[in-house]
Amino acid sequence: MRYLDASELSGVQIPTIKGWRKKNNPGLESLSAMLATLGYQLCPVPELETLPPKIAGELTTLALKLRMNIPQTWTALLDIGVEQELLRLRAEERAAILADHDARMARGANDNTQRHAPAT
To answer: Distance (Å, rounded) from C-alpha 4 to C-alpha 86?
Structure first.
């Protein structure tokens, strides 16, 4: 993807994007907008060290079995959980959720539309 395309879709200026390579780090809003433009989303997960030892051990065992790193394993677990929840929903509910998701993805990743406060 070209810088111009990424900038137009995300709302993040080209110099800002280029600056991430050497000069500065992206802020959370810019990073989320850019990831959404690329079809990804930011999903924070706990550090392995902050988990209870039993869960950390089981997660590590699962990651080794799957031949994945810990973030990839978290992603797989989240995907499985979402799939299981969607399977429980009726077809109409699933269609509504997917339509809402598609509508959100059709908008720009970073909606910079001016919002006006209601008149008082």
So the answer is: 36
The residue type found at 93 is E
| Per-residue pLDDT reduced to its tens digit, 14-42 | 999 999 988 889 889 999 999 888 888 88
Cα–Cα distance measured from residue 84 to residue 94, given in angstroms and rounded to the nearest whole number = 12
Task: Tally Cβ neighbours within 10 Å of residue 62.
Answer: 14
* End-to-end CA, the chain: 45
Q: Which 3 state secondary structure label does DSSP give 92?
A: helix
Nearest to 12 by CA among 24, 29, 2, 25: 29
The encoded tokens of residue 46 equal: 């706990």
